[in-house]
Amino acid sequence: MNWLRRILAILTKEFIQMRRDRLTFGMMIVVPVVQLALFGFAINSDPRHLPTLLYLEDNSAIVRSLTAGLQNSTYFDITGQVSTAEAATRALQSGDAAFVVTVPAGFTRAMLRGDRPQLLIEADASDPSAASNAVAMLDQIATSALKQDLKGEWAGLAQGPPPVDIVVHRMYNPEGISQYNIVPGLLGVILTMTMIMITSIAMTRETERGNMENLLAMPARPWEVMAGKITPYVGVGLIQTGIVLLAAYYIFHVPFVGSPWIMALGVGLFIIANLAVGFTFSTIARSQMQAMQMTFFFFLPSILLSGFMFPFRGMPGWAQDIGQIFPLTHFLRVVRGVMLKGADFHALWPNIWPMLVFIVAAMTVAMLRYRSTLD
Amino acid sequence: MISPYTAPLAGRGVGGLSGITPNIAPPHLKGFTMSEPELAPELAPELAPELAIDVRGLTKSFGKLKVVDNVDIAMPRGQVWGFLGPNGSGKTTTIRMLCGLLRPDAGEGTCLGYDILKQSRQIKNNVGYMTQKFSYWEDLSIRENLEFVANLYGLKNRHEVVDQALETLGLASRAKQLAGTLSGGWKQRLALAACTLHSPKMLMLDEPTAGVDPQARRDFWDQIHRLSSQGLTVLVSTHYMDEAERCDQIVYIAYGKLMAQGRVEDIITQSGLYTFIAEGTGVRDLMERLRGEAGADHVAYFGNALHVSGSDLAGLRDLVARHAVAGITWRQERPNLEDVFIHLMGQSKDNSVRT
Fold this sequence. Notes:
Distance between the termini of chain A: 48 Å
Number of helices of chain A: 15
Low-confidence stretches of chain B: 1-48
Number of domains of chain A: 2
Mean pLDDT of chain A: 87
Strand order of the largest sheet of chain B: 6-7-8-3-9-10
Number of strands of chain B: 14
Oligomer: heterodimer
Strand content of chain B: 15-25%
């Protein structure tokens, strides 16, 4: 039975060590609970309440019935009206609106004549899965919404084919190719994973190997250490970006319609944001193992709550608020905005400043945590 | 080269005075001071700039454990001081506080004239600190490590400085070797080269010779004395008595408290310890019997001889008489430093129990 004793001895030692490493132990117990609560309630692949703008050239009781029908379906949230086609496009580009419903002039009269006029719905299909359920419901919504109004002399219109011809423009990704959405998103995921991990581990390694004491005994200021340690990895991140973008263009045939400069700005900010997170982790983690765990702890909600894996608008409000914290959320919108929508700086600014705020916050924490003594 | 044994008496005088700590001033040192009236205590502030280290009441706790407790050190420039004490006695913590790597909980003072609390940058620029564990970058070559250090200190002619250091410390032939592949002795040479690269005014070496072979140890100390003869102040912690004896003065610290300070000779005299040495066949069995007997405070082996020490000379003589067995020869000798340290360690334990 000596083999059993040896196994038990090792097992006991393992438990003792597990108990001593509080961070790991905490991660093993707390993280699954948090994840269960967070992702279980947050993730929903059938997004509703998608922001919808109206562009009304005709406004009659029937049009109001239609828009009320959209609202009542819970798939669409009518958030406002626009008065020009340009404003409608801008709202779609910046992601403020997921749909723009255009009711052309003379719509009501044409419908009552039985001409089946067109109702134009422009959908932001850059994420095909986010829009698809809502789009699939459109015919049914229109038919049931109009049922109330089509009585008496117009009762005939309620029979047969729907009285309106709903034309859906799947903007930015007309064929609904999921690569268009996934590949630019992967750029963000790859950068998050490698940048945070490399930085946090590179710094923790210095502590683990005892180099930190030496570094601190020499006259190097915290920000100098930070700048020196981070810069090489900015280069690594840029190389990764180049590879992903070339593959996106030549292998996956993802279009690139926007400005490379805005793309460069977005990538630069995103890389810096992630490196700052990595640096912060390295000031907390005591071993490379812990640094890995913290990276993972940050990475998982990043991909799940950012809109990379599941539609962002499918999540409840509180989960969206949490998702807004992660730089990946904003980076995804910038990348998709630039590559697929050709959005300009103005349209993307709402997603650029949150990354700037994040960088300032993460750097501040890192500098406060970084100690120039061994205390 | 000035050997520590022939160091000018004047220098020792300064050390003797400034080495006095108010709370545990050894009586013989007081006498020493009075024999040199020109170094009267009221002149001490004027001597301050001459002190490389001048700290009072240095205290540091980690959690509930008081690692360094109210330590005063006044060390003149240009000397080599040994820092001794058992493992975990607070030597490393004290050194780290002196060179600005740890913030003391209490206490104040200067290192090279710079405030240890406020001017740690200036201290870092003028002190070379060699960590106990090798802490240079194992995946860089010797030259790369040295150039990195040269750049961190912003040395102007860094290529020449690095070449010079490689030459002086005999590292030139291995300049391209990765530091991680070096043996203990070579790592130690690299560390010494790196921490002296910026021509510091003071060196703090934390157990630099632990795990290093005797030849390398000797070479290392030759380098220390060479640097000292160039005017460098050196504070070196060690567990080796032969190294302690090469120092101008030693500071003995145990359980965070400063127990003794002064020249080796003085510390031995001051201890009030008497030592009898037993040699011959059967001393091994004698050891167990002597332990705990009246008169014998400490029984310890050195080489093949048994050292029996105690502060009560008459009691010791009785004990020797009781154990005058055939085949064992007894003689009284002056206690060596190690006898004294074992004695001091016992005392400090008593202290820690009492408080």
